[in-house]
Design brief:
This protein is of the alpha+beta class and 223 residues long. The protein has a single domain, classed as Glutamine Phosphoribosylpyrophosphate, subunit 1, domain 1 (4-Layer Sandwich), CATH 3.60.20. Helix content is 32%, strand content 26%. It contains seven helices and ten strands. The strands form two sheets. A six-stranded antiparallel beta sheet has the order 7-8-1-2-9-10. α2 crosses α3 and α4 runs antiparallel to α5. The longest helix is centred in the middle third of the chain and has 14 residues. It is globular. The N and C termini lie far apart (48 Å).
């Protein structure tokens, strides 16, 4: 029911993930981020508790592969789950249980990991990795472009209805957290939101740290 990618940008140190599903509000359940730690994706008959557990292990100094092994070994019903994990240095790992739905696959690239289930084609995760690796756009655009490439490669076997994009960097809050929770074309809505938000990301960070240096808000009533 889900395809996703998580990645790390060596140049900026940012982490990012994008996800899409036929199910409603996929990003709220399946995409988990912790500042200075990593991103975890927990999908397929989703148990949203698994993402925070993976991130807590990373925060305690456990390596990515060992964190996944620990969660797999200690979780009931893990055969139904699909996991992907990346830390704040770009190390990646993945797991897919034997009872994950439909056509499923996962793939890892340089500082990125992708996974999917109920896919139209088992090459979808690799198509996402290839798109991310070959793109020279901004980091957020690369992550979102990789998700679009997965959809173009077949995506889910059925229609996609929700999608999300998250970027995390130096601040303790997400640099970007955009979601389309239910729509006939969530990728288009997500791309439109990113196009508007990307040029303003740094301004919102400045407003938090130093309001006196921040640009005007550009809203009615703002001088």
């Amino acid at each position: 029911m889900t395809l996703s990618i998580a990645a790390w940008d060596q140049r900026t140190g940012q982490l990012g993930a994008a996800i899409a599903s036929s199910s409603i509000s996929v990003a709220s359940r399946c995409l988990h981020w912790r500042s200075g730690v990593g991103i975890a994706l927990s999908q397929n008959i989703t148990d949203p508790r698994l993402g925070p557990r993976l991130l807590a292990l990373l925060a305690d100094g456990v390596e990515v592969g060992a964190a996944i092994d620990a969660v797999v070994a200690s979780t009931p019903h893990i055969r139904y789950r699909q996991l992907a994990l990346i830390d704040c240095r770009g190390n990646t790992g993945r797991y897919t249980g034997d009872d994950v739905l439909g056509c499923f696959a996962s793939a890892e690239g340089r500082h990125c990991v992708a996974a999917g289930n109920l896919l139209a084609d088992d090459g979808v995760p690799q198509a996402m990795i290839d798109a991310f690796d070959s793109d020279d756009a901004s980091f957020g655009s690369r992550v979102l472009g990789a998700l679009a490439a997965g959809i173009a490669a077949g995506g889910e076997a059925g229609p996609v209805h929700s999608a999300g994009l998250l970027l995390g960097g130096e601040p303790s809050w997400p640099l970007a957290e955009l979601r389309i929770d239910w729509d006939d074309d969530p990728l288009a809505g997500l791309a439109a939101g990113w196009q508007v938000y990307e040029p303003q990301i740094d301004d919102y960070v400045t407003r938090a740290y130093d309001p006196d240096a921040a640009p005007s808000y550009g809203v009615p009533g703002d001088p």
